[in-house]
Design goal:
mainly alpha; Na+/H+ antiporter like fold; four-stranded antiparallel β-sheet; 33 helices; 8 strands; about 75% helix; transmembrane helix; transmembrane; membrane
Length: about 850
């Protein structure tokens, strides 16, 4: 085939891709539907011109279109890794992990249910062997969520819902393709009735092998990219190679799932890349992958759609009945998941509640597309698959895809409108009227200052001011008419606005490099949780998310366990350093939110709401300060090092801004500017390195700070430092339960606890101890102790505590004072 002609056809396809997006926006239809329709029209047109006797002038073009080397391997080995890898890079992993249970259950269970439903329905309605029917079921189980997610974003649907749909679809494709490989093997071996137990037993092996291959490939790639830290193009080139090598390595080397390998590689790079690569290099890498995925997604739709006319050439009347069976079985299987399994997960508190209208939209928005067609094409190309099975697989997969694209895709937005999802709630409508009124008042003030500065014509200014005043009066009247919004709703809306501004501020700080890229994802995830918590549960949800942002997570607890049991201090040191940086960044951001509340929230929602938001913000700042102070007490020198690092990074950012301004003003030339920036980049690379945290050295210093241990000599202090175990507890966590056995004494290194016994309550803070009364009185514990702030406790077992008590007069005095406060005779303790 003439290379010039092929190049012309491919370049023309890019013109089609460029025109499809604005056409989809104009027609208010999903982008994928427009691409598929255009591809079908191009393919049908090529067949028409090649076979018609009207003209032969377009025969070379038609032959070039129909002769394009479109094979299933092109889709599976070229386009599919690109789409999957970019999808994983674009995910917020921390938020995905929040919902890993519903995502994993929905993905895996949905694929299995759809495969079995379609497979057994076809086996009942046709003469096809069960293996072929299950193969078709696996093929049509893949979903394309782009249409419904795009619409959900345009109507401000809950972010968490869109995230679950995207995550479920990603794993859905991986699981479906893995099952496809299993049943394809049965069909090619001529096994009409496969043993499902054997088929499903191979499924975990495919997933585990692919996951390990992808993880290993990504770790090697990240190591290489870190070596080339000053060569951005080299890093991007390595990232381009990663998904393809992971896919081929898994498929060809160990016979595992290449799709799972690509997903695992992308997730690993997403998790480790921001901390190992320069911020700008990571941002550029993701932008390039966004472009590659856009092209790959568009080309896979168009090229797959080109094949549809050929796949339908041998269609028979009875095939339409089987297509109907596939449609009904697939929709029924999806409905079982959405209206049966999803509410069950919600009842078990494993998934957020998804309202019925959204579930209907997800059901109708489950479009199929290029992946389904690519898998069907792989079947039709295989010479080891019987001709009749090959023909039916191609027709049923194609017919089902056309139904989802043409029927469901074109009516999806109408369905959204019919469900009322595109209409604002009464609260949002009232809020929008108040926002317009406040915005117009601000605009009037700014315009008045502008006209004075430019000395415009008085008559013109007065005429325009009168015209604008009419609109402003109408907006103010409309806002006053909606004054019946409850304060509770105003607080919720205010919290959402404050959390949204917090997120915007974080992004700006990351762009300015005040906050490191390493911590950006975690801080942004915390801000997203604040937004979603406020949307779903108002003030209580916001407060719960705020407490979680400073709480000790499961990973931190595992790191503490590794350090205490196995003496592996590396994970704990790294996570403690992350916590330091996180709290410092949160404090920096929170102190900027008060101005936003006074400048915006007060004008929209009034003084009462603004004062309440200030109170909530003050509590957050106090909680962050308490947690940060606890870390300062534990690691005094390290906090100072981090603050110095922050100052140096801020100085470098301001210095860069000055050089850029001088360059734009023509005060310095390009050569001088380049030399200055090279020197600045070298100093920034040093400033970006986070100081090392030595857990062991800081532990001895922490014990030395306790007033109770002040009189103990250094030798005993060292032994005590080794004997004490560190325990981290979150606010609300029960430390000691009533009637539990007394085996340990607790010393508060940071934070605060609340002790309740016999209807009385005491609060204890840093430097105090608890748990000693039950040990000394040799009785079961009668008190319940609960943390009221993120706290760090030092735990000492009974035997060591008694030996220490005999040596320390200060400790004896503290025990006596504690006993007197609780009405216990101190002489009964000794």
């Amino acid at each position: 085939m003439d290379i010039v002609l092929v190049t012309t056809v491919i370049a023309s396809l890019f013109l089609v891709i460029g025109a499809a997006e604005p056409l989809a926006a104009r027609l208010r239809m999903p982008y994928s539907v427009i691409l598929a329709v255009l591809g079908i029209l191009i393919g049908a047109g090529a067949i028409f011109f090649l076979r018609t006797e009207l003209t032969d002038a377009l025969n070379p073009v038609a032959e070039a279109i129909l002769g394009l080397p479109i094979r299933s391997n092109v889709f599976l080995y070229v386009f599919l890794p690109t789409l999957l890898f970019q999808a994983t890079l674009g995910m917020n992993l921390r938020r995905i992990l929040d919902d890993w249970v519903p995502i994993l259950v929905l993905a895996v269970v949905a694929v299995v249910v759809a495969t079995l439903s379609v497979g057994y329905a076809l086996a009942w309605a046709s003469a096809l062997p069960l293996a072929a029917c299950l193969l078709i079921g696996a093929i049509v189980s893949t979903t394309d969520p782009s249409a419904v997610v795009t619409i959900f974003r345009s109507i401000s649907a809950p972010r968490r819902l869109a995230r679950i749909i995207e995550g479920e679809s990603l794993l859905n494709d991986a699981a479906a393709i893995a099952l496809f490989g299993v049943f394809m093997g049965f069909v090619m071996l001529g096994m009409p009735d496969p043993d499902l137990d054997e088929a499903l037993s191979r499924f975990p092996v495919l997933i585990a092998g692919g996951a390990f291959t992808g993880w290993l490939a990504a770790r090697v790639a990240v190591w290489m990219m870190a070596l080339f830290s000053r060569h951005e193009l080299a890093q991007i080139s390595i990232s381009i190679a990663l998904p393809y090598l992971a896919y081929i390595g898994a498929e060809q080397s160990i016979g595992a799932s290449g799709v799972i390998a690509v997903v695992a590689a992308g997730l690993t790079l997403n998790l480790t890349g921001p901390g190992r690569l320069p911020p700008q290099a990571w941002a550029n890498l993701r932008e390039i992958w966004d472009v590659l995925a856009h092209w790959a997604g568009a080309l896979i739709f168009i090229l797959a759609a080109l094949l549809i006319p050929r796949l339908l050439e041998e269609v028979r009347l009875e095939d339409f009945v089987l297509v109907g069976v596939v449609i009904l079985a697939a929709i029924a299987a999806r409905a079982v998941i959405l209206f049966g399994l999803l509410p069950l997960l919600t009842a078990l508190k494993l998934s957020p509640e998804v309202e019925r209208p959204y579930r209907v939209a997800i059901l109708w928005g489950g479009l199929r597309g290029a992946v389904t067609l690519a898998l069907a094409l792989a079947v039709t190309e295989s010479f080891r698959v019987p001709d009749e099975i090959s023909r039916v697989v191609g027709i049923l997969a194609t017919g089902f895809t056309l139904f989802t694209l043409i029927v469901q895709g074109t009516t999806l937005r109408t369905m959204i409108g019919w469900l009322g999802l595109d209409r604002l709630s009464p609260i949002d409508q009232a809020l929008s009227r108040q926002v317009v009124a406040v915005a117009l008042q601000t605009v009037r003030e700014d315009v008045a200052r502008t006209t004075e500065n430019y000395e415009l014509s008085h008559d013109t200014v007065r005429s325009e001011a009168k015209r604008f005043g009419v609109r402003l009066d109408a907006a103010v009247k409309s806002a006053e008419d909606s004054a019946d919004i409850l304060d509770r709703d105003r607080v919720t809306l205010g919290l959402i606005a404050v959390a949204g501004h917090e997120r915007d501020t974080i992004i700006e700080r990351v762009r300015d490099r005040t906050i490191s890229a390493r911590m950006a994802e975690q801080i942004l995830s915390d801000a997203d949780r604040l937004i979603e918590g406020a949307r779903s549960q108002g003030r209580s949800g916001y407060n719960r998310a705020a407490r979680r942002s400073v709480a000790y997570g499961r990973g931190f607890r595992v790191a503490v366990l590794l350090n205490g049991r196995l003496r592996l201090s590396g994970p704990l040191a790294r996570m403690t350093a992350d916590r330091f940086e996180l709290l410092l960044s949160q404090r920096l951001i929170l102190r900027d939110l008060g101005t936003f509340i006074d400048g915006r929230i007060r004008r929209i929602h009034g003084r009462r709401v603004a004062d309440l938001l200030h109170e909530l913000l003050a509590r957050r700042i106090e909680t962050v300060e308490t947690a940060l102070e606890g870390l300062r007490l534990q690691y005094p020198g390290y906090a100072e090092k981090l603050e110095r690092r922050f100052i140096r990074r801020t100085t470098l950012r301001l210095e860069e801004r000055e050089y850029t301004a001088m360059r734009e003003d023509g005060l310095i030339g390009a050569e001088v500017y380049t030399a200055l920036m090279q020197d600045l980049d070298a100093r920034r690379a040093v400033a970006e390195e986070r100081p090392h945290l030595d857990i062991a050295l800081q532990r001895a210093e922490l014990v030395r700070q306790f007033p109770l241990f002040a009189e103990i000599d250094d030798a005993v202090l060292k032994r005590l430092g080794r004997a004490l175990e560190t325990r981290y507890v979150n606010a609300g966590e029960v430390i000691i339960r009533k009637d539990s056995a007394a085996r340990s004494v607790f010393f508060i290194a940071s934070g605060a606890v609340e002790l309740e016994t016999a209807g009385q309550t005491w609060r204890l803070g840093r430097g105090e101890m608890f748990g000693q009364m039950a040990i000394l009185m040799k009785k079961a514990r009668r008190a319940e102790v609960r943390a009221i702030a993120p706290s760090t406790l030092l735990v000492l077992d009974e035997a060591r505590f008694r030996r220490l008590l005999d040596r320390s007069a200060a400790l004896q005095d503290a025990v006596r004072a504690s006993a007197e406060k609780r009405g216990v005779d101190p002489d009964d303790l000794f």
